[in-house]
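Thread: Modeling a multi-component assembly for a lab meeting

Hi all, long-time lurker, first post. My supervisor asked me to bring a structural picture of a complex we are working on to next week's group meeting, and I have zero experience with this. I have the sequence lines for every component (695 residues in total). Could someone generate the structure of the whole assembly? Inputs are pasted exactly as I received them:
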Amino acid sequence: MENLGLLVDGFGSVLTPENLLYAVIGVLLGTFVGVLPGIGPAMAVALLLPVTYGLEPISAFIMFAGIYYGGMYGGSTTAILLNTPGESASVMTALEGNLMARAGRAAQALATAAIGSFIAGTIGTLLVVFFAPALASVAVEIGAPSYFALMVLAMVMVTSVLGGSPLRGFIALFLGLTIGLVGLDLNTGQSRLSFDQPLLADRIDVVVVAVGIFALGEALWVAAHLRRSPAHVIPVGRPWMSRSDLKRSWGPWLRGTAYGFPFGALPAGGAEIPTFLSYITEKRIAARKGHDDFGKGAIEGVAGPEAANNASAAGTFVPLLALGLPVTATSAVMLAALQGYGIEPGPGLMTDQPELVWALLASLLIGNVLLLVLNLPLAPLWAKLLRIPRPQLYAGILFFAALGAYAANLQAFDLFLLLLLGLLGLMMRRFALPVLPLILGVILGPLMEFRLREAMAISGGDVSALWSEPLAIVIYVVVSIAVVAPFAVRRLRPTPAAVAADQSLTTDDTQTEEKVR
Amino acid sequence: MSTSLDTPTTAESPRETPGPDRDLAQLGLAALLVVVGAYTFWEATTLRVGFGDPVGPRVFPYVIGAVTVLLGILLVIATLRGDVPQAEGGEDVDLRHPADWTTVLKLVGVLLFTVLTITFLGWAVSGALLFIGSAWSLGSRTLVRDVIVGFVLSVASWYFFHEGLGVILPAGILDGVL
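Re: Modeling a multi-component assembly
Sure thing. I ran the full set together rather than chain by chain. Output:
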């Protein structure tokens, strides 16, 4: 109950007319950028970070929260209306959502996605309020060796377990770790990998890395392969739901939430697995009830995965706030933003800056409400954005990427770095290197080095200190299982998840059947 | 899309047309990894070790450099054994045609021009030129409209940062005008 009191205090500091205005601007900007084709939530947050530069931390947080939820909502709009999932978590939404849109039920699909996201986001954020402080109070007790082990765990999970190809995951991770090395060494103050550039000695801003790899890399990759034929956009009316739509949606919303939150909260990362599980569950339940219109545009197939997606996004705030560990690209960018306000990632985050953390949680709840209030009526307007001609769209992305990288330090050199990182992003897309391990390497690499040196300094250089804590040993055991298990399972038989991951995702019915089987 | 963080999501675009069973361009990536890793490792040897710090500034670069070299070698082996990356699809991406590197080069040129001139021209002019140049590189032929949109965007963003956020973007040659 103490948590609720703190949350109320959080609301107190957030709820001023000025801050609410920032929240509204955040939701609108986030949705605007998120709806634009080719931009997922991580990129939306990265691109819009500079907008918050001049603000007080609390005003900035409430704006982030709006941008974050707006960006996620925008992703489901493109998935439903264009059949183009903006990120891997929207793939399942696109399956039934686009079929519904083609059958003239785009408005209902958008409505069930918006309301489902609202319910899942609210329940998920309330669960964060209860879980994160409890975990954080345990986490502040853990020593440097265990924290080091936790970071190893996060990296291994994201790199080798979640991705399709462990080799490519590790290549991306180590490129990120190399970028993270650039700058002054923590203890001796010598610059590493900075080529005698004073501007590099200052470390590369994570925001520049994120904008370069996500936004510029994407724009360059699209430029190399621009589709010459215009995309087909389905018109949308004002979203509303009939009584039967509601009746069919509330079960999937709640079940999706139940799937999504644990996957986000345990650093298992990503929303692919819970959205997939939610989709199969709803399909099975519908089949048992005898009204199986999956494959023809079933509303359950939109409601469940969308709720799972949002609940898992809320869940990622548990490791982020309690341990300072980001496990998705979006939370990695959020963490970079928090660092900009002097909030150091780590288990002390909640105890060192309680008023900021509670303000952030209150902001998430407010952002969630505003999303629903603003975006249900505005859906037809957002759909129009999908018609922006592609040359101007990507020129605009380049423009805002450059603006963001430049506004941080007002150095032309940052634009040059942005270009280099954009070319790296282009190369990563060409060679199918995943982006998340790289971002994680940039953020966690320096933290890991800091913790390792702390642990070693305490033990006087005795390496065995690294496994001197029981928690650390447990984590290393989990890490080894996580690394070995996929190989062992692959030897035995191809798992359904692997089959799904390997297939190109299309709405082709036969493939869907096969995947979901 | 875009951020397809973990798995390449192929939306509508079918798989790449059955290409060669080896992607020799990957050897370029492998070479890059070896060079970056070796340089990281070598540079670490030039660092001075401090006192009272058992780990020191060298250990991380040593490990990261060495593993990066190793990953480069593993990538060479994988490539020669026929590992082909599945390039990332996306909503505006059509992988059925060969890559159009001319457009990419034009964009890189536009960005380099921005890097070199931004301090002198200021954001309002440089940003507008960036938008116009990029739109043109990407195939837009509505020049008049792009010029108008570009200048509106850059001047509006200059004022937004200046008035709203207190971030003073350089005005460059328009100093005194804005």
